[in-house]
Design brief:
single chain; mainly alpha; Four Helix Bundle (Hemerythrin (Met), subunit A); 2 strands; about 70% helix; globular
Length: about 170
């Protein structure tokens, strides 16, 4: 399997495990404020989704200017979403990423990104995908910390657990 596709599938798997755990919490925990990098579980998920959305649009060739123009409406929509609706949004964008990766062909191909604040970056699709997956991992850590602060146990979502799950799936099929 292509490593970029596997990383994106890991990202989707980890998000699914996270949502499974979050759905076990009392409903009011979704917006309960804590002392952390983000004040609520909802705020972290909104940020994660927005960044995933932005980078998918960048990979598809959209300009940051056009993407930023669409973010206000998206942000408002995400802030109104409950946990179930947010989960559906994450599932949908995960499918979009997987379809994009499968359709791109050569992920080692060059891509040039013109960011209005950071400047021009010459990279590859694979490297940007790695960034996207790392970003998700980073913020799932924030979510685990918040869940812990709220008095609950987080999900086991390290990459090694994903690899074990792949192995288990091969053995049972």
């Amino acid at each position: 399997m292509d490593k970029s596709l596997q990383l994106q599938q890991f990202n989707s798997w980890a998000n699914e495990k996270l949502f499974e755990k979050l759905k076990e919490l009392p409903t009011e925990m979704y917006r309960k404020e804590v002392e952390s990098v983000f004040p609520t579980i909802a705020d972290v998920l909104v940020h994660m989704y927005q960044v995933d959305y932005v980078w998918l649009q960048v990979l598809k060739g959209e300009t940051f200017e056009d993407i930023f123009n669409s973010l206000k409406q998206l942000h408002e929509e995400l802030n109104l979403a409950d946990l179930q609706n947010m989960h559906m949004k994450f599932q949908s964008i995960s499918e979009d990423y997987e379809n994009f990766i499968k359709g791109i062909g050569d992920l080692s191909a060059d891509i040039t990104v013109h960011h209005p604040h950071f400047g021009t970056l010459h990279s590859t699709y694979a490297d940007l995908n790695q960034h996207i997956v790392n970003h998700g991992t980073y913020h799932r850590g924030h979510l685990s910390a918040i869940v812990n602060q709220l008095g609950y146990k987080g999900a086991s979502i390290d990459y090694i657990f994903y690899l074990y799950s792949l192995q288990e799936n091969k053995q049972t099929s």
